[in-house]
Design goal:
1 helix; 98% helix; 123 residues
């Protein structure tokens, strides 16, 4: 019976040792997988930091573009107002030219009338 108990104990010890080796192997594999996962997370963090920096840069560029567009819109408004002023001055000048032409025509008529009067006094 001692020998049977000894063999049974040896069998149990062998099973425990196999289970321990299997557990150790599983732990090593899990550790390797965990290290791989940590590397992937670190790479993801780096990638996200790069994306965040790019988004920040794009946001800054958009702000500059919007600012430039606002400036261009203000300049276009100023130019439009100036063109309106030029148009008003051109209209006034045109009206003045028409009035000047009419006055010149009237003066020419008066000059002709005066010449006709003067010619009557010449005998």
């Amino acid at each position: 019976r001692t020998q049977a108990a000894t063999q049974e104990i040896e069998a149990i010890i062998a099973k425990v040792q196999n289970s321990a080796r299997l557990a150790a192997t599983t732990i090593v594999e899990a550790e390797d997988k965990t290290k791989g996962s940590v590397r992937q997370v670190e790479q993801s963090v780096d990638a996200l930091a790069g994306i965040s920096a790019a988004v920040t840069a794009i946001t800054g560029m958009n702000a500059q573009i919007a600012e430039g567009a606002d400036g261009q819109a203000r300049t276009a408004g100023d130019i439009s107002a100036m063109i309106g002023n030029i148009s008003a001055f051109a209209h006034q000048t045109s009206s003045g030219a028409h009035e000047t032409r009419e006055v010149s025509r009237q003066l020419a008529q008066v000059a002709q009338d005066l010449k006709a009067l003067v010619d009557r006094f010449r005998v």
